[in-house]
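Posting this for the archive.
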Amino acid sequence: MKLSFHGAARGVTGSCYLLECAGRRILIDCGLYQGGRELEEENAAPFGFDAQTIDFVLLTHAHLDHCGRLPLLAKRGFAGEIITTAASRELARIVLLDAAYLQEEDARWRAKKLARRGKGEAILPLYDRLDALNSLEFFGRTACYGQALELAPGIVATFIDAGHILGSASVVLDLAEAGQSRRVVFSGDIGNAGRPLLRDPVPPPACDVVVMETTYGDRLHKPLAPSIEELYQAIEDTFRRGGNIIIPTFALERAQEILYYLREGVHSGRLRASLQVFLDSPMAISATEVFRRHPECFDGEATDAFARGEDPFALPGLHFTRESSESMALNTISGGAVILAGSGMASGGRVRHHLKHNLWRENSSVIFVGFAAEGTLARRIIDGAKSVTLFGEEIPVRAHIYTINGFSAHADRDELLAWQRHTQAARTFLVHGEAAVMESFAARLAATRVERPQPEEVYTL
């Protein structure tokens, strides 16, 4: 039995782990690196394994940094089976097609830019929409929480609710080979307990080896109630100044959660009934429709709303802007609008246009409600950049910048420690975290052998 690390090793994005057992090769996730241009080169580089030899991909959830290289895997010869939950399958379709479209658009833009300089070099996307559609053909069996799936003799997988986004899972693998047995748990991304939409993460079973995320392994989250109040206050303060609110938003879970809180704010009277909210993200709009189809994944408050015949994501002044012309029209609004747009790290998508039109305005606000990886535009703004470059233009940062950490869909340090203790694992591999965070988290672990693998490093289990 061998385990190797081909993404999110000493970093946060690009999750991809290869498990070899009983003559089978199993990938857990195949995600896209996200951040600066240098990470684009890593996305296009060889995987570190032969895609044609992979028998199964177990997808923990549909975030791009976990599923975003599946089309590339198929393009390079994968012909096995992708297994995930029903909700993750639906969301992955939306995410992969959107990612392919954005890569096609980026390739066209870069080719045009080169042509203006007299260079006729061909610029190809990492993969296109046909590649994305082809990869969807490999989605096979559907995983149900708590039900064992035999992948092959000696290999049994069980998905348990990770409470991170709709359909997210941790994966428990019971392995047997040459008279030896091991139970290995892959955390995926572990959710933050006590959210109003999704159920809390299911505690993992005892195991021999655990591979776990450490995104927020060095800090505690701000409590939820004060974070919601901070959001409401930021909105009201901005409206008093006569500006707009731009919220860079992850299309899966975060967009739906913010809509839920805005709806609650209007219903409770904390926010004005005339609040105008624009969900300017075709992917987030489609994802919201998927959320509505899976009420079985929700926690008490949202479940109760569905039972009453209410839509927990609807509010009177909500507008869905699918078309690019509708999105561009938003930039003519001088004040009074709440605009939710992707991407959450401002590394692409429509939010960059809204930032270009609002960052320089002192009466406007930008509210960050999610994680921002190193090298991303969001991280530079959060870290206090005085100006940023958008579409070749230097834009001064004069808008009010808010960072509200209490909305995180990731477990914080204490929740991660409690989750790890449940595993009673003799060996713990730390992944999906910045190096300094992993080091801090590792120092708090006891009664386990801690590994912090390097990219491409191989271990015998």
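Residues 305 and 339 are 25 Å apart (CA to CA). The mean pLDDT is 94.
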